[in-house]
Design a protein that fits this description.
By secondary structure, this protein is of the alpha/beta class. About 25% of the residues lie in helices and about 30% in strands. It has eight helices and 15 strands.
């Protein structure tokens, strides 16, 4: 496993909060996009794994995603973004605090087996056989649970490989594998199908349990939550007769309550309300049916909860 050593005695970072983000891989681009939206300004020099933030007392540390939970748990890193699967696999859940789930990097850690093998329909059918994975701890926990024994007494053979896990069955190394599945395309291309889900995972923002910069951590948390809310909601504005207002507020009640403003036209009001994007089309139809007019939808660039 690739790893790095960071501590606050390094030049230029002694008085800065260390914020770890994945240095590459499936989470990297989405993390950079999030940093941009929460107002963190930095320039990362080529081949450098530390970048000083120019507008906040923060140093970004680019680490392998698999190492971030461990560095946060040990206190070397104050704040980090990594996958829930990494936290569980590294067994650091008791030593880090989850601040918020980020809604990207969603996938499933699944037990997979060759689709051609019709005799294997559940993970129970693989008990006592050969399993290959890069998530050894989670896999052992699952199969020990299926066997009803402790990990040191389990019969299932769990072997670690760092990459190309999906090839293990085809090459005769395993009877089944445990790996992350996002779209499922790689799994199907390798002739595999899922028979059990161990964990639903996504990216999370975490901190350690002995924060050096609690106020700054809270600021970053609030900014992230604001961006997530802006991505989830739109602002809907419409005009409606006052007699229909109560019905309209039932249709779209907002996060707290709609904002209602009287109009110069007698018995008419203007309403502003936040609506979840996934519900927007249906809500607009329902508002139209009860008499709303001039219905407008505005994107929310950013927010604070």
């Amino acid at each position: 496993m690739e790893s790095s050593f960071i501590n606050a005695s390094l030049p230029d970072v002694a008085d800065r909060m260390l914020f770890a983000v994945p240095k590459k891989g499936r989470l990297y681009d989405q993390c950079l996009n999030l940093l941009n939206h929460i107002g963190i300004e930095f320039h990362r020099k080529p081949r450098h794994d530390i970048a000083l933030v120019s507008n906040m007392p923060i140093a970004l540390v680019f680490l392998p995603a698999a190492d971030i939970a461990t560095y946060v748990a040990k206190g070397n890193i104050d704040l980090g973004i990594t996958g829930l699967d990494i936290i569980c696999e590294s067994q650091t859940a008791d030593d880090v605090a989850e601040l918020t789930r980020l809604g990207f990097g969603k996938c499933k850690l699944q037990v997979q087996t060759p689709a051609i093998n019709s005799s294997v329909t559940s993970a129970q059918d693989l008990v006592g056989q050969r399993i290959v994975t890069s998530f050894v701890n989670l896999t052992k926990q699952r199969f020990a649970e299926l066997e009803g024994v402790s990990i040191d007494r389990m019969k299932t053979q769990v072997r670690f490989v760092s990459g190309s896990v999906e090839a293990a069955c085809g090459l005769g190394l395993a009877d089944g594998i445990v790996d992350l599945v996002e779209s499922g395309d790689t799994m199907r291309a390798a002739g595999l199908h899922a028979i059990d889900t161990i964990l639903n995972t996504e990216s999370v923002l975490i901190t350690n349990c002995h924060q050096r910069f609690p106020k700054l951590v809270e600021t970053i948390k609030q900014r992230v939550e604001g961006v997530l809310m802006a991505r989830r909601y739109v602002l809907c504005q419409y005009n409606i007769k006052r007699e229909s207002l109560e019905r309209a507020c039932v249709v779209a009640s907002g996060r707290q309550a709609p904002t209602v403003t009287s109009l110069e036209a007698e018995d008419w009001v203007a309403v502003s309300v936040m609506i979840e994007k996934k519900e927007l089309a249906n809500k607009m139809d329902q508002l139209k049916e009860i008499g709303a007019i001039d219905i407008l939808v505005l994107q929310i660039a950013n927010a604070r909860t």
